[in-house]
Amino acid sequence: MPHKVLTARFAPALGAAMIMIMVLVVPMTARAAAGLERAVAATMIVLGEDHRPLGSAVLLEGGLAITTADVVGARAAVDLRDGTGRTVRAQVVARDGRRGIALLRVPVDFGPGLALAPVTVPVGQAVYAIGAPLGMAPMVTRGIIAAPPRQPDPAVALNALRHDAVVHDGVAGGPLVDEQGRLLGLNRAAPDGALIGLGWAVSASDLARIVPLMVAGDLRDVPDLGLSLRRVTPDIAEALGLTPGGLLVETVIPRSRAARAGLQAGDIVLGYNATVLEQVGALAFLIEARQEDTARLHIRRGASLLTVTLNLAPVTGQLATLSVSGGAVARIESYRFATLGVMFEDAGRVSHVSLHSPAFVAGLQPGDTVLALNGTPIDRAGLEALVITKPILLLIARNGATQHVLINPWGSAPRTAVQQRANLLDARAHLF
Questions:
Q1: Is 317 exposed, middle or buried (0-12, 13-18, 19+ CB in 10 A)?
Q2: Are 157 and 282 in contact (CB under 8 A)?
Q3: Predicted pLDDT at 411
Q4: What percent of the chain has pLDDT over 70?
Q5: Which of 98, 203, 319, 327 makes the best surface tag, with the fewest CB within 10 Å?
Q6: Which tens digits make up the pLDDT trace of 278-323?
Q7: Contact, 203 vs 159, CB < 8 A?
Q8: Which DSSP category does 319 fall into?
Q9: Considering only 124-138, 170-184, 204-218, 309-323, which range has the smallest mean pLDDT?
């Protein structure tokens, strides 16, 4: 059954001039329809338990498909269905929750798929968002690129395209393409605080860089550093009697990587190895591209220029990326609070929670005091020594009241938990 692409209808033409315009436009429309047909054919519907629609996915070349991590959640396998109704079981072979990308192995030939290639997309270019709202057959909406690519989260090495094509629920994980059907990006749910009416898509340039690394198991994560940074604006520079440039250290979490390196609140980070730092988001790309697990940070502290060494070695059992080997996901059997990005102070008070961890998704916040674990009182030493092998229930005290927080590192994260800081300005502090 052929796919249908809807195009706008115009009022009847009057006179020879309008007839000439239609003669010129028809060939271009036919080319656009052919390109969109190919992209629609490469758009899959992702189904979970009882064939419940979860979102969309894009068929790539080489028997792989790509979707967003929040679509598949913690599942090891999902069903994929194309627009003709053909369904197949696909394995989740790699998942990166921090960047929000998941790869699927497709055992059946659904067609050629879309090519991964860097694409420059100018502001104002026409784009088409394709996906399966509410599990229906893939649909197409049209819009334009609204702004240059930008990082939704400065601590994550990803750029997103902003466009005004309509993105209904269920379109996340589907492709954003041009009229030739070239993959421009991967549609995702808009971050909390995003401008109403704007859609978001991970850029094709980032996908072309990240997906091969995920397949090879070589993708480097940006570990939690335990500090917040803000750009040294002209106003801040004037107050400090300096020239603009560098990143001002706002907060350093005790016992974090930043604290162990010797960083202090008030330091100005001038450079990373041999690279001068001007924008907060540049640090994530530099850390992701590292060849070694240590880096030199050049800082200004008062009138002194110092160099400190930052440890970037990954934490054993880190949740972010899973292996592609063997075509199946290796389930992580146990965690500690430290590997979930949670740190404690005296009396079981939470001093830090990673914004990308299951603990944060569950609702644990800095400042909470843990009173009991699974109904039994527990102190800081017990929390830090705990090996988590199943979901846990914490009784916490917050603002004079008590409540329970259920943490399940193997559960599905709600979609609103991914990328929550889209509207933060560069001049504000950003947590790493």
A1: middle
A2: no
A3: 66
A4: 81
A5: 327
A6: 888 899 899 988 888 899 999 999 889 999 999 998 764 333 333 3
A7: yes
A8: S
A9: 309-323
- Rounded to whole angstroms, the Cα distance separating 406 from 361 reads 10
Nearest residue to 409 (alpha-carbon basis) of 340, 324, 328, 341: 340
65-91 per-position pLDDT tens digit: 999 988 888 888 999 998 888 899 999
Given a contact cutoff of 8 angstroms between Cβ atoms, the answer to whether 41 and 114 are in contact is no
Q: Tokens standing for 345?
A: 């102070």
What whole-number distance in Å separates Cα of residue 56 and Cα of residue 175?
Answer: 9
Strands 126-131, 101-105: pairing kind: unpaired
| d(C-alpha 235, C-alpha 277), whole Å | 18
Q: 243: burial class by Cβ within 10 Å (0-12, 13-18, 19+)?
A: exposed
Structure-block tokens of residue 424? 């933060």
How is residue 321 annotated by DSSP?
Answer: B
Q: Which amino acid is at 360?
A: F
Q: State how far the alpha carbon of 146 is from the alpha carbons of 36, 122, 182, 363, in Å.
A: 21, 9, 18, 33
pLDDT at 100 (0 to 100): 86
AA letter at 129: A
Amino acid at 263: L
From residue 282, how far is each of 154, 203, 229, 262, 419 by CA, in Å? 8, 16, 12, 21, 17
**Nearest-angstrom CA–CA distance, 188 and 339:** 27
Positive or negative, the CA dihedral 390, 391, 394, 399 is positive
